Amino acid sequence: MLIRLPLLLSLCIIPLATAGAQQSLDAMIETNLGSLVETYKMLHAAPELSHHEEKTSVFFAGQLRALGYTVTERVGKYETPEWTNYGVVAVMKNGPGPTVLLRTELDALPVDEMTGLAYASKVKTKNDAGLDVSVMHACGHDIHMTSMLGTARMLAALKAQWSGTLVLIGQPAEEVIDGARSMVRGGLYERFPRPDYVIALHDSADLEAGKVGYTPGYSMASSTSVDIKIRGLGGHGARPETTKDPIIVAAQVIMALQTIVSRENFPLDPAVVTVGSIHGGTKHNIIPNEVDLQLTVRAYKEEVRKRILASIERITKGIALAAGIPDDRAPIVKFSETQVTAATYNEPQLTEKLAAVFVKALGADNVVKLPPVMMSEDFGYLSLDQKIPATLFTLGAVDPLKVKQSKEGGAPLPSLHSALFAPVPEPTIRTGIKAMTSAVLELMKK
Length: 446
Ligand SMILES: [Zn+2]
Ligand SMILES: [Zn+2]
What we know:
By secondary structure, the chain is α+β, with helices and mostly antiparallel strands. The chain has helices at residues 5-9, 16-19, 25-45, 54-66, 141-157, 179-185, 188-191, 246-264, 302-322, 348-362, 400-407, 425-443; strands at residues 70-75, 87-94, 99-105, 124-126, 132-134, 164-171, 197-208, 212-214, 217-220, 222-231, 235-236, 271-280, 286-287, 290-299, 332-341, 344-346, 367-369, 390-398.
């Protein structure tokens, strides 16, 4: 692997003593921004896939340790016991008061970077299936790590201004949505102080750098992967009367599944059923034995999710029955137990409170209320089914001029996960640190 992370380990941290704890937060951020942008570029050039964040986690842990945090590595437990969990937990106890947990992800994606940036990733590796893939921080988790390292520096230097316990976590495997759950399963809230608040940020490929967005209530959907195997009775393509054609059944199932959201679901409960993959057959004139479908289901409310899954099973099995497929060849419908994640619910009181803090720190023009989306992430697990107030805010990462041109009819901007996604480091990281630090100082003020 062409990972250049060892270089990072030699990166020294600019001591904050020179900046002076009394200096304003803005000035302290400016003093540190240059070195943090360098950190960002190095992290960007050395991405690691989900479940393989070894060097990234070592670097991240080392940086926090150097700042005086008590750091524990390899926190977490996957369902597959032979996988190592690279979760990092850093704790700073600073007197009585609330416990606030900040989360960043550590992992990157199998994307071949095409940004052309000087610090673009050239990393190639093998994925879990043994295939050669390129790796890129195409979701901006390197922005999140750098923002957290900057926030960690600020809060370590400003200890006189807050009281309580700060917990910073580096979470692996967000992109495959089993990282947050694995850290909770591995004792995150038993081995370390249980938080009163959980906060994270995620960069945005649509919002201008310098801005933050907030979404009170449900902001992202739950996600469930569903695998359907439709089994028929294969035979010659010219002798359909001797077969039970699973391709026809699959086609009917796909169309009928689209009536779940349109006809069975309450229209004001957002939901999506997408069939993202269909595979069956080998040749023009053979009716195959099987067809495989892969679906994703999105919803906010748990009862809606459960109803949709039940409908998928009922419709699929009903259509196969109607086609005359015998019971012992009935479709197999599997709801994934690993590729599933809860909805993200931004506790409204906490979210509004922090939005007011952001207005003070960044100016009213730079804080925007954003509508919810049906995309998913595993941050929701850290709230333990909404028992702990949690909020995930959005960090603008795009050149404002490009956003303007795109809105005025120009080319659409590259989305997250795109090989062309290139956040503007300086203003994005500056804003991330300012927002996150201000949020913690508010929740833990003396
Ligand atoms: Zn992502
Ligand atoms: Zn992400």
